[in-house]
Amino acid sequence: MAKLLDKFEQEPALRVARRLVRAIGARTCLEETLSACDVTDAKPDPRLQIWKTSCSIRESIIDLLVQEEQSVRLAVLKTRYRDDLRHGGELVGTTSIVWLEWLRKCFLKEWDGSLHINRWSVAGSALELMEDLWKHRGRGQLDMPAKLFACSTVFGALDVDKAAQDWLSYKPGPNVRHLLSFKFLFDTRAMTLLVRTSHHILMRHAYNEADAVLHLRRRTMPQVNLQDVVYLDRRLRAAQDHYIVLKINRQSVLSDAFDQLWHRERRELLRPLRVRMGIDEGEIGHDLGGVQIEFFKLACQEAFNPAYSLFSVDPQTRLGWFQPATMVPLYKYQLFGLLFALAIYNGITLPVSFPLVFYKKLLFQSSSEADLIEGWPSLARSLQHLQLHQGSVEEDFARDYVYSFDANGLHLDVNMDDPWDGWSIWDKIKTGKSMSLGRLKVMRQYPDKHHPALKSTPSAQSATHKLPLSTDDQTQSRTRAHEYHQNRFEWPGWKVEVANPGELPQPVTNDNRQNFVSSYSKWVIDWSIRPQFNAFAKGFYSVMNLRSLALLNADQFRTLVEGHNHLDIEALQRATTYNHYTATSPVVRWFWEVVKAYPQGKQKQLLEFVTASSRIPVNGAESLIFVIERSDSETSALPGSSTCFGTLRLPEYESKEVLASKLNIALEHSLGFGQA
Q1: Number of domains in the chain
Q2: What is the dihedral of CA 117, 119, 121, 123, to 10 degrees?
Q3: Which of 237, 197, 183 is nearest to 213 (CA)?
Q4: Can you give the pTM of this predicted structure?
Q5: Closest C-alpha to 674, from 351, 299, 283, 252
Q6: What pLDDT digit, counting tens, does each position of 610-647 carry?
Q7: What's the pLDDT score for residue 433?
Q8: Assign residue 207 a region: left if phi > 0, alpha if psi is -120 to 50, beta otherwise?
Q9: Which of 132, 146, 153, 277 has the most beta carbons within 10 angstroms of its beta carbon?
Q10: How far, in Å, are 33, 42, 48, 49, 321 from residue 39 at the CA level?
Q11: What is the pLDDT of residues 643-663, one digit of tens each?
Q12: Domain annotation covers residue 553
């Protein structure tokens, strides 16, 4: 394999490759030109009709590569290497891998460093052919490691600030594409750096605009009395403040944040964030990042508290998801989406865990069967069992064609027709139209023993309606709908309709089980939580820039938001700086010996004690601010921390044993910010 690839670097081979790629590019250009031509004339050119109905050359190449790989796979399965292949082994030396390497060499040879790539040039054609391979790899048709596509040489040649700036202002055309649109060329670190750089560019622009307004005001109105100054400050605050400042009380984190973010202008939200926390409690902290980290940690903890009813957490996967049909007003989801975006925009890693489909939805990507398996594994197994069942589904499962979930103190079985008539948030963004309420037809309902019943939202035509529970026994309640005071009312985002007495759902049978599984998956991932998700997304995109997030795939987006769960303690040690200690001081050496002996969970507890977060940023522990400072306290005192500065204050203990004991006590009784 290596010898074969070496031959492609020879000039005769590269000349052949360039001519081949140039010819494919020219053919593709002709195909796209002809496909745009009108063939509805009374006497169309027959040659044009032949071109339009023939398979494209790039599709033909991919078909050949897929067929060849399938043949190789079947051949390998007949050899002694079959077990390696069955256990996740990769095919080596296939035509698709050789073709990819050839294309990459063509691109690197022809690329002139420009950010704008002519699609029909050798470089542009090579990239689009590589993109075809990448797409079919993603569909599982080609067995090609992602690392083979990345070109660190390309990213190393870029001016990151210039590339991000150009991407934000770039307007796509039919013949030219931006280099950054070929996302497979860049790994996760490169892409997240580009995204964060684009955020910094937008932040600088917003800051400079505010600075210009303030400078203009001072220049044009240099002599005004104090009363006028106060008046102007109040009226021009949205235009001239350099920062968006949140003043937060620890006892009411979310409500304080929501109150201060409500009706903010977008230009304010795009400025750097500053958090003042604990002022009412007498704390004094400088927001150098640590206060923001703790603020978002507390905000997420409150949002995921079951009593708040914004999100639920799966007990098996520990992944969060939207609470379906909750009585929480949709504006709270919108404001939390805004808060979520502010964290990302300001480079904060959030202590949340969402399934991958959450990030796909935010990027307007379609979901797959694998998304249900990751987020709801037990449900996915049950649905798969139903699909593959050999006997009578109707008799053996006795399952009705309904979607079941808990909401507002009730367990509901609802009709599974599309409640949105195919309308999605993407349609809302494209058309600018508001979404109508979803239709929720309740076939059956009975008490949820674990949650008390709540009141429904009052509609415009009637007063608030309670959902009284039937006094019939539970068996009776499962066979017909309960009696409500009204058959129609509203919940946030929903028009709720109660089925008529005697109206029963149809059973799931062998004939309709495929449709049942498909609809049930859509209800779990999309339909049941669409009002809440759409409100969240509306707030999210009031801050975030669609163009910058378009650089990321869903996996990279999740890493940007959630960071990494694994802490590399060696990397943290390399990143640590010292104040009044050195790396060779006895106390420092004892400290690292003790910490390296900790299990991973306790190491992350230490990280949270010092930095206010146990999550590791996307760029790894090397990017953390972690300072060990000598404390002037008595050697009997416990270690302390200042999360404002990412600093651990460590007294000069007399032995390793004393240090270990004191550090353990400090971690067990840590109070977070300002611990001393």
Answers
A1: 4
A2: 60
A3: 237
A4: 0.84
A5: 283
A6: 988 888 888 888 888 899 999 888 888 899 988 878 89
A7: 60
A8: alpha
A9: 277
A10: 12, 9, 8, 7, 49
A11: 878 899 999 999 999 999 999
A12: no
